Amino acid sequence: MTRLPNTLAFRLTFWYTLVVIVLITAAFNASYFLLSKALKDSFEQELIDDIDEFQTVFKNSGLEGVKREIERDMIKTEEAEVIFFQLFDKDGIRFYSSDLSRWEFLPDSDDLVKQVISSKQFIFQSVPMPGESFDIKAA
Fold first, then answer.
1. Regarding predicted confidence, which is higher, 17 or 137?
2. Nearest to residue 101, comparing CAs of 81, 76, 130?
3. Which residues, in sequence order, are CB contacts of 95 under 8 Å at separation 6+?
4. What does pTM read for this prediction?
5. Is the sign of the CA dihedral 42, 47, 49, 50 positive or negative?
6. What is the mean pLDDT of the chain?
7. How far is CA 124 from CA 18, 43, 47, 128, 138, in A?
8. Per residue in 107-139, pLDDT tens?
9. Rounded to an integer, what distance in angstroms lies between the CA atom of residue 85 and that of residue 95?
10. What are the angstrom distances between the C-alpha of 138 and each of 16, 25, 58, 82, 127?
11. Band (79; pLDDT cuts 50, 70, 90)
12. 36 falls in which pLDDT band (50, 70, 90)?
């Protein structure tokens, strides 16, 4: 069995290397989590901005204006099937939605819709996408 040298230079090099590895690992982990949180917050803010835009369109143009805006957004998006819309009335009854055939795996949202209506707060839900390595985000 080979013995490691027991010199001061070797011990200092070993400990400095170990400290650097720990610090670099901590820095990368902190960067990952901060970037992940920033992206999540940015995406959620984008969803809130879209909701605010639809509320403004509804106030100005009614339901038909919202439907037109949804159709415009679907046309602008290169892959329209990756986006879905559902509109609910104040009683939690869905009265309009985009094509939900690709989204049949989504859990029943009746309780969540009622919770949003009663609290008047945005609630974000992450749902695993079957066959994919990512979740979808719904507001």
1. 17
2. 81
3. 63, 87, 88, 89
4. 0.64
5. positive
6. 81
7. 41, 11, 9, 13, 6
8. 677 777 777 777 777 777 777 777 777 777 776
9. 11
10. 47, 33, 20, 12, 8
11. low
12. very high
Distances (CA, A) of 116 to 60, 65, 85, 92: 23, 23, 16, 9
**CA separation (Å) from 82 to 1, 9, 74, 88?**
60, 59, 9, 20
The secondary structure element, H or E, covering residue 4 is none
Q: How far apart are CA 36 and CA 33, in angstroms?
A: 5
Q: Count the alpha carbons within 13 Å of 115 in the hemisphere toward its beta carbon.
A: 9
Taking a C-beta distance cutoff of 8 angstroms, is the pair 94, 108 a contact?
no
Q: Give the Cβ contact number of residue 98 at 10 Å.
A: 19
Bigger pLDDT: 38 or 132?
A: 38
- The H-assigned helical ranges of 77-139 are 110-119
- State the Cα–Cα distance between residues 71 and 30, nearest whole angstrom: 40
Q: How far from chain centre, in Å, is Cα 88?
A: 21
Q: What pLDDT does 117 receive?
A: 75
30 alpha-carbon distance from chain centroid: 19
